[in-house]
């Protein structure tokens, strides 16, 4: 299992109900919102892994941002702000046990799709709005890139909660 999945799962034990929904300011997500975002977006990426199995063959490639991201193997370390239309605040109603259950379901799905991600032909792709055309293995890798990117956000939130 991916170490990032283990990290986020173990970290859930650190939070009490008030800490989960604490906001540093009106523009900053709570820990609960961050976890919800990670779960929802990871499932969206895994949906695309499955979609690539049935996608037509294409020679279309990545956008310049997609090329850069996959060349580096990571999202930029700086926060990424999506346009307001795509940036609805994530849910923050789940408590630790609900987040744990959803996280474990995500882990199971991620493990289940590992073989499919590697065995789907690389020229069967679906389109990402900002990164261009990605194959199943790239969508699968994107899950880890995204988790790693938000680890920095989590560290900032944890530091603020500790004060």
What does this structure look like?
This protein is mainly alpha-helical and 163 residues long. Helices cover 58% and strands 5% of the residues. A two-stranded antiparallel ribbon has the order 1-2.
Write a brief caption for the model.
Helices cover 58% and strands 5% of the residues. The protein has 163 residues and is mainly alpha-helical. The model has no long low-confidence stretch (mean pLDDT 92).
Topology:
Layout: H1 3-11, H2 17-20, H3 31-52, H4 64-72, H5 96-112, H6 114-119, E1 125-128, E2 132-135, H7 136-162
Antiparallel strand pairs: 1-2
Keywords summarizing the entry:
163 residues; mainly alpha; two-stranded antiparallel sheet; globular
Q: Output the radius of gyration.
A: 16 Å
Helix content: 55-70%
Give the uncertain stretches in residue-range form. none
The major sheet is characterized as: 2 strands, antiparallel
Order of helices and strands: HHHHHHEEH
Total beta strands: 2
What is the 3D shape? globular
Count of helical stretches: 7
Oligomeric state, counting identical vs distinct chains: single chain
Separation of termini? 33 Å
Major β-sheet strand ordering: 1-2
What is the structural class? Answer: mainly alpha
Fraction of residues in β-strands:
under 5%
Please tell me the overall pLDDT. 92
